[in-house]
Amino acid sequence: MDRLDKNKLPRHIAIIMDGNGRWAEKRLLNRIRGHQEGANTVREIVKTCRELGIEVLTLYAFSVENWDRPPIEVNALMSLLRRYLLRELDEMFDNDIRLTAIGDIENLPKGVSTVLIDAMKKTKTCKGMILNLALSYGGRNDILRAVRRIINDYELKKIKSEDITTDVFSNYLSTAGIPDPDLLIRTSGEYRVSNFLLWQIAYTEIYITETLWPDFKKRDLIEAIIEFQTRERRFGLTGEQIGDRDKNRA
Ligand code: IPE
Ligand code: IPE
Ligand code: MG
Q1: What burial letters (b/e) apply to 218-238, b meaning 16+ CB within 10 Å?
Q2: pLDDT confidence of 246, banded at 50, 70, 90?
Q3: Mean pLDDT to the nearest integer, 151-160
Q4: pTM score, two decimals?
Q5: pLDDT > 70? residue 32
Q6: CB 227 within 8 A of CB 51
Q7: How far apart, in whole angstroms, are the C-alpha atoms of residue 98 and residue 128?
Q8: Alpha carbons 206 and 204: distance in angstroms, whole number
Q9: What is the number of the ligand closest to the CA of 36?
Q10: Would the CB of 122 count as within 6 Å of ligand 1?
């Protein structure tokens, strides 16, 4: 904890929460048990981010591709999600956490979307942190939807071709208004992005740990942030340019 520099925290942390199934299988348990245990990790990580003063935490909870898992697992994940939202709502509100969601929310079962929309409404004015859940989310779908909306605005003559800059495009994505993630964490040792925030992670620092999501605790998150703080983010410049820039700022 002492090695953590509170003045150099990532503004936005995004996490691919992976390894619930393997956590359970290793213990000869049903995969669903792994998801239940994973929900406890979500609780701990949300709390830690709030305590640290992280502005945005985006959690990849369910991908568009995950719909093709066995129905029994999909149903279990959906009821877990519903239970999580119902259980955590008061605490979120008390801790000034605003809940937002990205993904095809309209495809979630009614029982989940109702609770989700209700929780988003109730926490709308909270300012302490944004907890952004990626649900039925796909990065390619996010980009496609943005393109469709731009075409629509173009046809309505609300936008001209030359107006479409990268910043403008970003504002058509589901993450409009949220800064791009500074740090992307993936648990369970997989070296892939799995259709998560494709556009938004152009310059995100990536941290992969072998730890399975249910075992990922507060100290693991702090370790990831400490490692992030050792990185030199060059954004295409030379190390020397970055050094000069930092000197001028100091
Ligand atoms: C992540 O754990 C949770 C979801 C994708 C919903 P997994 O269920 O993918 O766990 P593994 O990868 O099978 O271990
Ligand atoms: C990514 O995990 C999606 C979520 C964590 C919600 P997966 O387990 O679905 O990813 P793949 O299939 O290993 O790429
Ligand atoms: Mg997985």
Answers
A1: bebbebbbeebbeeeeeeeee
A2: confident
A3: 98
A4: 0.97
A5: yes
A6: no
A7: 7
A8: 6
A9: 1
A10: no
